[in-house]
Structures are given as C-alpha cells and as structure tokens.
Request: fold
Amino acid sequence: MLVIASDIHLSDETVGVVVSDKTFSLFASRLRELAYQASWRAGGRYYPVREIDILLLGDVLDPLQSTRWLEEAPGQAGYVRPWHDPQSPQFIHKVREITRAILQKNQHAVDVLKKLSNAEGVRLPPADRRGNPNLYTQERVMPVVRIHYMVGNHDWFYHLPGAEYDAIRAEIIEALGLSNPPGPFPHGPETAGDSLTDSLSRYRLVARHGDQFDPMSYNPDLGRNASSLSDIYCSEVIYRFPYEVNRQLGSELPPKLLRGIQRLTNVRPLLATPLWIVDQVHRHGTDQASIRQIKQIWDMVIDDFLALEVLQTNQFTNPRTRNTLKLVFGISKKMSLPAIAGMSRLLRNHVGEEHISIARFARQEANIRSGQADVAIYGHTHSHEIVPLDKRARKDPESGQVYINTGAWATFFDYSQQHKTDQKTVPMHLLTCVALYREGERQGRRHETWWANFA
Reply:
C-alpha cells in the first residue's frame, strides 16, 4: 500500500493558521484503517500487508511561510531574503533556524509521523488458517513503514546541495522518521532515489508536486534550486502586510482584528484577500483613522514590493508580468480599501473562483504516454480532483489512466456562494490523501482517495 499527501504547510506559526493536531491524529487513525482494509485480498481472503509507503508530495514543511525572513531590513547584519544566494551563510542560517522552529512548533505532527515510521505505527491482527483475521490473539503483525519526502515550491530549500543542507535534512529525517538519504530531497521522479523509484514503478505511478507547471512558482531556466516570483510576492506582500500591521499598529488595533489579518494567508481564492481585509475591518469596528493607517501600510508594502531590485530584472519576471504587477498594484494605491474590495469582487465574478487545474500536464508524462503508468498524482493547486486521462487495453477491462490531485491539509476561509456581495466566509479544515494498492490489496482495487472537512 502506498499513501500520498501533500501541501500540509507546517510553519513556524509566525504567520497564518497552522494545521490542527487533530488532523494528524485522524490521518494516523485512517492509515491504520486503510492498512487493515488493504489486507483483505482479491478473492476475499485476509493476509496482512507487509509494507506501507507514505509519500509526502511537497510543501509539507513550509520554511517560506515565515516572518523570520523579514526580521532584518536591507543594510542590517543578517539581512537575507528567499531569492538571495542560497549558499550564503546568512541564507543557510535562516533556513536552519526556521526549520528547527517548524519542527518544534509542530511537535504533535512530528511525533505522529515518527511513530508511524517505527514498529508502533501500524499493528495488524495476523491471519488464521482460513484466511480471516485472528482477533483472539495478542500477536500483531507490524508492517514496515517507509516515509519518503519530495519537495515543492515552498520547501524547495531542502533540494539544495551541500554539506550544510545535508545537516539540515538529517535533522528532518531524524524528526519525521524519513527513509530519504541526507542528500537533496527529490523534486520529481527523475531525481528520486532507488527506494522511491522502485515504489513508483511497482504502483505504476508518476508523482510530483506540480509546481513546475506554474510559471509563478517555478522558473524552468533556473530549476528547482532557485527561488521564484511566487516566493517574492508571498514574502513581500502576503506575509509582510500582516507583519507590518502588527508591528506598527499592534498596540492600537482590536486583538480580533489583528488575528483576522494574520489569517490573510489562509483566504481562498487569493483574489479575495482584499475582501478579507475589508471584512475584518468592518467586523471589528475599527475607526476611520485606523482604517487609513492600515491602507497606508498596504501602500507602503506595495511600494517596497514594486521597488525591489529583483523585480527590475528578467531573472524572475518577464516584462509582461512585471508591467501587469505594476498596473494592478499601482491602481490599488489610488483606491480606498472598500474600493479595492469592490475591484476584487468584480475580478472574481469575471475571472472565476481561481480553481486552477494542471491535469493537462499529466497526459504529457512520458510514463503515462507509454502506458508504463496508470496514475499521475500532483499536488500544488490545493484543489482535490480526479480526471480520467485515457483508456488502456489491459487484462482488466475496467482499467484506465487517471490524474489525481492530492488537495491540501489546511485551514481555509472560503467565500460563500450565497453571500458573495456580503463578503461572508466559511471556514474549511481540510484533509486529503490518496491510497494506491497492488497484488490484490483492498480486494483488488487499484486506488482510492479520502477527503475530509472538519466542520
């Protein structure tokens, strides 16, 4: 059995809302249930699974989502940003510092994964002579559990080469009980080690995070050992705005408003972030003077973002993208917060709800085209979906090729369909995972997905 999850975004809690501890407890419980069900083979006999692979498909730890990158201003000692030289001592120190904070702040999640990777994780009843589970014995079968880590666009730092990064990865491997060697964590099947490559082959699977299909999150000319435009935008706008509001107005604004602005990173779709700011301001009764101050902070953040030297070059942006950013954000500076919210609402109505599918790229995977793989699995979009790709003539008449997106484990504040004009949100606490089977596991099934929302 192979279980895949992605986009968990464990952070150091300096910005955004972290995944609930209950999510990991539920995942562990669900994994044990899946292992038991997988032990029922085609033909109806029970035989406990001996091996379980877990693939963490990118953006599991999130060292990008941290205001620690913003603590030093330009010119100060230790100043570094995610798009600077990744081999500089300041950069390596920052990645190590944030990684350790993530592991410390998410101790329950760390403990759950580590426990799953050893003999305590999954315990199954043995089979009796008739092919049924023997529930009357204290004996238990403990499958070998291997946890593999593949990087995405928020944890690409763990793909960087060098002894210093090997040491950082060794801490992650020890904490989570990973099967990865301490070298660069793979970014796709092309760079996977022997153990993971073998697992992907046995399950006739292609798996990658999927960020390479997003031009905002990946630059094909620079590869995955380099930053992207998304890193710059997130750090300097989405993460910095709440950071500056708290730094400059933290003692003056209502605590509930500060917490609401802190959750800006969890709002979906991203086009709705201005709506969220206005909603929080109105909901918590902030006076007009404070509203003007919040708008001034927004303008300052945008000015600083557009003035970044890195945006004046073609390293991360092409001229068209750069001009679009300047146009959109330049307009926002001349508008009030409610007017920006109105523009955001108009864009959402015309552009749509920002659901972006990358399923079309799955059809182009070499192993899908050749028929060596039946399933392509990506993450990245945070939108769980299943898309049929092709029908292949195999022994099983019901077989076919499919694309599956693993969605996300996250707390989102999504705008309701009924109250779009009133800017009302519904909290969504999501967990998605995919399980794949072989050798008759799960009574001959090939795969299944599991999606949950904690209401």
